[in-house]
C-alpha cells in the first residue's frame, strides 16, 4: 500500500477514535435511566436465627447515570429508557458525590423504617435513643444556609424538644414569610441557638406554589435503634428509599415461623413509613420490566389510594405492554400486603 494511502487510512482511524471518545465521555445535562435488576432479599438480609423461605422477596432497581450522546439517542428507542434533566433530580449546586450520598442516606433511612415496621408487627423488642434531626443538605440562598451546617443535629424548636424529621417538618410547614423560628442545634457537642427567617423555595425544588421554609432539605431522624434479635442488611451501593416495603416483608418473614412467600417469587417497590403506609416511587414501569426478567410471579405496586396516576396504574400499563404473566398487585399498606400473601395457596 502506498505511503500516502496509509497516511489517509491512519488519519481516518484517528478521527473515528476521537469521535467515539467524544460520544462516550461528553456528558449532557441529563440523567439516563433504564430497567435495572431484581435482588433476592434473603441474600442480603439476615435476622439472627431467622426462619428460611421457599420462595423469595425481591427488590427491583432502576439503573441510572449521567447521559452522554449515545445514551441520549438510545433512550429514544424504548419507552423504558428515560431521560431526566439534572435539575429535576439534583439540588442547585449539588455535586455528584453529594447526590450519591443523599441517595445512600435515603436507603439507610428506608432500611431502618422497614426494620421498625417488621419488628413491631412481629411483636419483637425495639429500643430507641434519639439524637435529634440531622441536617444533611442546605438549600443555597435560603436562611438556614447562612447559619446551619451539614452535620448539625436540631434538638429543639422554640425551646421544645424535637426528635424526628417528621416532627420538624410538621412544626415548620405552617409558618409564613414574615415569621421567625428559634432552632437549637448540637454542633460537635456544643448547643447553639439560632433565629431563622423563612423564604420561598427556589423553583428547582419543585415545592408547592407559595410554600416557604428555612431551607433544610432531606432532614434525617438520627437515632440509635436496638433490635432483638439482631438484623443485618447489606445492599452495597444501592440508593434511594423505594425498597422500604420489600425490606419490611423480608424481615418480617424471617421473624415469623410461617413462610409468607409460600414458594412464590414476589417482587415489588414502594416506600414504607413507620405506620406501615406504602408510598409512591419513580420508575414503576421500568421495575416491572426488571421483575419480569427475573421471573417474578407477583409485583407489588403502590396504589396511592386508587389515584388515576398511581404507580399501580403505571405498573399495570407496563405489564400489559410487555405481555408478562406476572400479576400486578395494588398495595396501600404493609398490612394489606400481608393480607394478600396470607390469602395465597401454596405454590404447586
Automatic annotation (TrEMBL):
SMART domains: PDZ (SM00228). Its EC number is 3.4.21.53. The chain crosses the membrane at residues 12-32. The active site is at residues 242, 287. Residues 116-187 form the PDZ domain. GO terms for biological process: protein catabolic process; proteolysis. The keyword Hydrolase applies. Residues 236-344 form the Lon proteolytic domain. It comes from the Bacteria. One of its GO terms (molecular function) is serine-type endopeptidase activity. It holds the Pfam family Lon_C. Keywords: Hydrolase, Membrane, Protease, Serine protease, Transmembrane, Transmembrane helix. It catalyses: Hydrolysis of proteins in presence of ATP. Belongs to the peptidase S16 family. This is endopeptidase La. It comes from Halalkalibacter nanhaiisediminis.
